[in-house]
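Design job #97: recover the sequence.
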């Protein structure tokens, strides 16, 4: 009885509305009363559903509407109806569904994911949702060059990486494609927003989008910045921040402070900007 109450949509909605502490509460409840199956979401994605196993802490936060609340709030602030958005690192599809809701039926979300396990999970979650039809799932990674690359598979969903081993449970070869070539093949002439969460592979993705970014710099971007992982791919947090500035974006963090290692970087397009080559970036 207690399990049904604590995992009910009503209780989860109350936790989602809590100003603070909700993520911790969701994890505590889920350790005692995990859910595994189709879950009606609450909070910012209240109209969506996902297959979730809340024994995983991050999926518990999704079920209780407390997954990356600052990033989700910023998405709804930055995205406009009709936008074309690129997200790399689609994982289970939570962020892709948020983007689909934000761009609306006239927009488009290009969601890239290379981890074979996450591809299938994301595809299932998108199929549960009507506005998931706005999302095009592309089952490969983005990078500077086309080829097959070794990916470290993480035991934590969403943390597999082409750059670094993180809670590694194995590895596999995955396809990686040049972003400019992919977008040209899809007939995409502009991108209004970019969300990169690729565990240290961010600079490689930007290099592969060089021509697209030189033609039309997206209005906004949210880019993960993790120096340890970036260095594993031959770059660094400093290089990533410098490159984002050179592209013409103004940088801040989700809380409005100065950009730094260890958090998401919010990029907004300056009034005037110039494009410089990415070829200098390792």
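Job complete. Output follows.
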């Amino acid at each position: 009885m207690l399990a049904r109450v604590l995992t009910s949509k009503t209780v989860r909605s109350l936790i989602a509305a809590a100003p603070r502490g909700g993520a911790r509460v969701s994890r505590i409840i889920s350790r005692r009363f995990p859910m595994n199956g189709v879950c009606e979401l609450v909070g910012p994605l209240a109209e969506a559903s996902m297959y979730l196993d809340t024994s995983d802490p991050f999926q518990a936060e999704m079920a209780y509407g407390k997954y990356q609340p600052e990033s989700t709030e910023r998405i709804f602030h930055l995205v406009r109806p009709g936008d074309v958005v690129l997200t790399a690192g689609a994982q289970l599809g939570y962020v892709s569904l948020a983007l689909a809701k934000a761009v609306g039926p006239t927009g488009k979300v290009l969601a890239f994911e290379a981890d074979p396990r996450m591809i299938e999970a994301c595809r299932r979650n998108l199929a549960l949702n009507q506005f998931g039809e706005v999302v095009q799932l592309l089952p490969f990674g983005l990078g500077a060059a086309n080829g097959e690359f070794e990916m470290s598979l993480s035991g934590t969903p969403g943390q597999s990486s082409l750059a670094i081993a993180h809670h590694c449970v194995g590895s596999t070869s995955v396809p990686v494609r040049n972003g400019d070539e992919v977008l040209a093949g899809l007939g995409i002439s502009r991108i209004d927003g970019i969300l990169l969460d690729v565990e240290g592979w961010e600079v490689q993705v930007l290099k592969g989008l060089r021509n697209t970014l030189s033609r039309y710099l997206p209005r906004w971007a949210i880019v993960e910045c993790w120096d340890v992982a970036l260095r594993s791919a031959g770059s660094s947090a400093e290089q990533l921040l410098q490159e984002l500035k050179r592209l013409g974006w103004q940088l801040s963090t989700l809380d409005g402070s100065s950009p730094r290692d260890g958090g998401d970087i919010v990029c907004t397009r300056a009034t005037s900007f110039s494009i410089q080559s990415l070829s200098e970036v390792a």
